[in-house]
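Bench notes, bay 3.
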Amino acid sequence: MSKYYIQGEKRRTMLSFEKINADNMMQTAKFYNYKISRTSDYTVGGIYMWREFYDTSFAIYEDMIFYKVKFLDRTSFTYPIGSGSFTKAIEALKEYCKSNDLPLWFCTVPEEVVPILTEEFNGTIPGNPSRDWADYLYRAEDLAQMAGRRYSGQRNHINKFLRLYPNYQYHEMSSENLGRVIDFLKDYQTKFGKEASLAQEEFKRALEIMPLIDKFQLPGGFIEVDGEIIAISVGEIIKDTLYSHIEKANRNYEGAYQMIVREFARHNVTEEVKYINREEDVGDEGLRKSKLSYHPTKLLDKYCVSVPYN
């Protein structure tokens, strides 16, 4: 814990970072409605599932929240959000970094916030944003309907699925069926799981978050055929965007992935939900090809920004 004076204030202020856990997660989530971008980093799923991987902790300062993470082997911070003063929050971080001998380095900064950090706080961008970490943003109606010539490939897969499995059913996840969903995830990992460290971490954290989806207010759904779960999806809705955090399907059922994409969208898209964020591809060529095939309306780049103390 660091003690310091905020410039222009006489009272002493303390800034303390606390590790994320299941009990304090929703305390931080109340700030997410203040974010001005549609990137996936300020989401319950994004923060909680990856908290160990990025060694995530948070601090709240005068109604503003920011996270401290290990990103690219260095201590980094997320840009502050909340109902308080952005400027005061940045000054608080400056003083924290000074007293802890840390550079003030922001990561996963959306393009909407970059001008604020560069123009108002003399921040610099050390390089181009990584394509691997750009979020894929889609029009919600596109994924719910998959209409038009450009979605003919997806519709072909869906039509094949409907011919083969006309009695399929879609169900919302609940405490009554979560055990079956977890069994599906374990079976999926055995049959189709990838060995990459990020994929292994995702599987571990997907199992961990499943019993918490009600507590974290995360909508989830699955498709079953003849009583067997063959595809699942778990997401999150913040403002006008549905975020897709977990999506798995049994590849032995042709069209299962296309069906869970469409059905999850149809069951969660409302008049208020205009976009779906299917998150990044982390450089996985198979994921990239799949995400591009659904025709994103935009790739949401994320920047690193270095801000000087003075």
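Next record in the batch:
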Amino acid sequence: SNYSYTSPNRYYSASIITMTGITQNNASLAIWISALTSTINFLGTFIGLFLVDRIGRRPLTIASLSGTALALLGLALTFQLSYVNSPKVTFDGGVAENNSCLFESCGVCTSKRECGFCFEGDTEGNYTASCVLSNHSLYDEYSVYGDCSNTTLAAGGIVVYAYDWCPYQYAWITIIALGLYLLFFSSGMAPMPWTINSEIYPNWARATCTSITTSINWSANLLVSLTFLTLTEVLLKHGTFYLYMCVAVCGCVCFTLLLPETRGVPLEQMGDLFSLPVLQRIKKRY
């Protein structure tokens, strides 16, 4: 579950929302949208609570992973469309420092940590824009030179400085995909690993096995959390979500082939269940 994007969502949710461009540098709006997605995550847990003993662990796990994979595909596609269809750079800043930010579009420009996209647009979506060097000392809210280095123009909304995001008219689709991801995840893959993990071990090995699996879980959490921002630079945003989607699909296939239904199985018979051949195991019902 941690390898398919859960940790970045928890720790970087406001940043991910900002990456869509929907907030247009409005930090408070990003936080409120993040709170909304967290509420969806909270409400989704009640779906899992209601269904876990009604439809069983196996169907809920597989359905949850399938849904998260589709939602991750939606996130990847919207970020890719935003990258491919991002506004073009219309003029060069014309100073020597700009040599490191000579790119043709917002997508390529904002994929570089040192650059940002300075633009002024009209109601019809026409942009006058340049790719400029970002001022890291001012938290990347302004550029080193050009119109977006003028705090009066930028603060007044005359020009907009986009660091790590691009203006995109369908950015709201990303928020919907993020909400669907959280809904599918929280209803199945959030509680099911812990539920199944508590049922499948014999008493003599339960403490040790639970400790090992919990350690692996949080190690994966740490790994994904530490590498998320780096992956968005190396693979770009859409490439990162395609990677997470592939992990979710692999998990879905593995659980479909290997995970038996453990609902109603007495602890004493759990070993017998897992000793059955795979096809018999997944068809066995108690």
